[in-house]
């Protein structure tokens, strides 16, 4: 039975309203989690009570007034020190440290999920992630080189760490892409098995150097390396936040804008050419943006790569394979997941120390990942 134009339009509008309601619910949950995270006292100051709603809200309100007070309310700005003392300097600094930490978790989780969705769409495989291009191996080698060269100063030298990690990651990715294309069918279609094999070989080769440097590290330097890799020590100073936000912006925003065209990246090269579509540039942009996202998120938050595989798979199983929906939902769900895991680190202490966020994340997602491996439901057909 053929539907009329009015019936098709009605079905489209109904589906659109359902999607809008789902998206509104996801955004509302994300906002709630973000605001709730801002009420939890920053861990570094050792308070017994974890909730600091009144003190932190006062701190945020005062911070906003200070921001505009330089121009519009100079009398209030002149009393800055007195206002901070009345709130409590520890509360004031802790509030903005929590804000930076929560914002970083939101964007890092969102970036990891979107990058996973990008690679799963390009390679049409639920196990695909930036790791198959050797991105993580380059980051680990960059981190251990930083510790070898600068020891404890590596924790603070975020800009230098970015340069080294991005350079090594770029080298790994370019080598894997070139070798994968050379070993593939030469028609432009990414061969998953070839890319996985090449990526594994390159990663293992790089890990040899990483293990060698780690073996020669002093005990104190090895502890510093572990803090960097696991994300125990998180840089939230002004320069670190600016670099992180810029990298997130130049990688996430293009993908959000290109999500309407990115379904073409999943089309077979021959079929795309027949339809007058060239998926090559879109695939290249997606892979570059995905690697930038993963590198920035891993440098700041540690080993959280499980998000790249699990979250996009679950989103695709719920909303379908349309990248327009997968991208948006992955953004919110990935951000929520990492914010929750980061929040749990404030409540779970071992020997008066927080456990790494990657530890909680992997415990939560590993069972789901095992189910994915068992079922092998791809969600691309």
Automatic annotation (TrEMBL):
Keyword hit for Cell membrane: yes
Membrane topology (UniProt): Multi-pass membrane protein
One matching Pfam family: FecCD
UniProt keyword annotation of ATP-binding present: no
Transmembrane spans: 23-44, 56-72, 103-123, 129-152, 164-183, 195-217, 238-262, 282-315, 327-349, 355-374
A GO MF term: transmembrane transporter activity
Main localization of the protein described in the UniProt heading: membrane
SUPFAM superfamilies in alphabetical order: ABC transporter involved in vitamin B12 uptake, BtuC (SSF81345)
Any one of the GO CC terms: plasma membrane
Locations listed in the record: Cell membrane
Gene3D superfamilies, per the entry: ABC transporter involved in vitamin B12 uptake, BtuC (1.10.3470.10)
Keywords linked to the UniProt accession: Cell membrane, Membrane, Transmembrane, Transmembrane helix, Transport
Family per similarity comment: Belongs to the binding-protein-dependent transport system permease family. FecCD subfamily.
Name of protein: ABC-type Fe3+-siderophore transport system, permease component
Taxonomic source organism: Eubacterium oxidoreducens
């Amino acid at each position: 039975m053929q539907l009329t134009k009015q019936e098709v339009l009605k079905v489209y509008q109904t589906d659109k309203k359902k999607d809008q309601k789902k998206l509104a619910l996801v955004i509302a949950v994300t906002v709630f989690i973000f605001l709730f995270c801002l009420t939890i006292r920053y861990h570094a100051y050792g308070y017994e009570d974890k909730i600091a709603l009144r003190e932190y809200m006062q701190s945020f309100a005062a911070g906003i007034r200070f921001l505009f007070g330089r121009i519009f309310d100079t009398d209030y700005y002149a009393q800055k020190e007195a206002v901070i003392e009345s709130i409590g300097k520890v509360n004031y600094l802790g509030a903005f440290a929590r804000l930076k930490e929560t914002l970083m978790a939101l964007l890092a989780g969102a970036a990891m999920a979107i990058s996973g969705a990008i690679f799963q769409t390009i390679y049409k495989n639920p196990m695909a992630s930036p790791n198959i291009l050797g991105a993580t191996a380059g980051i680990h080698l960059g981190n251990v080189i930083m510790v070898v060269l600068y020891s404890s100063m590596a924790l603070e030298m975020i800009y230098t760490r970015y340069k080294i990690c991005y350079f090594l990651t770029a080298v790994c990715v370019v080598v894997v892409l070139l070798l994968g294309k050379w070993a593939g069918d030469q028609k432009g279609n990414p061969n998953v098995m070839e890319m996985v094999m090449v990526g594994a070989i390159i990663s293992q080769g790089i890990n040899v150097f990483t293990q060698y440097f780690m073996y020669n590290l002093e005990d104190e330097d090895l502890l510093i390396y572990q803090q960097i890799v696991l994300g125990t020590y998180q840089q939230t100073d002004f320069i670190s936040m600016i670099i992180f936000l810029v990298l997130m912006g130049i990688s996430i925003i293009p993908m959000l804008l290109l999500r309407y065209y990115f379904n073409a990246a999943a089309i077979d090269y021959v079929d795309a050419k027949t339809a007058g579509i060239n998926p090559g540039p879109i695939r290249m942009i997606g892979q570059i943006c995905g690697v930038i996202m993963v590198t920035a998120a891993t440098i700041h938050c540690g080993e959280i790569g499980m998000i790249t595989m699990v979250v996009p798979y679950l989103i695709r199983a719920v909303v379908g394979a349309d990248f327009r929906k997968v991208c948006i939902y992955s953004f919110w769900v990935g951000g929520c997941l990492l914010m929750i895991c980061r929040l749990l680190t404030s409540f779970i202490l071992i020997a008066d120390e927080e456990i790494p966020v990657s530890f909680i994340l992997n415990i939560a997602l590993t069972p789901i990942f095992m189910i994915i491996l068992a079922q092998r439901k791809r969600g691309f057909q």
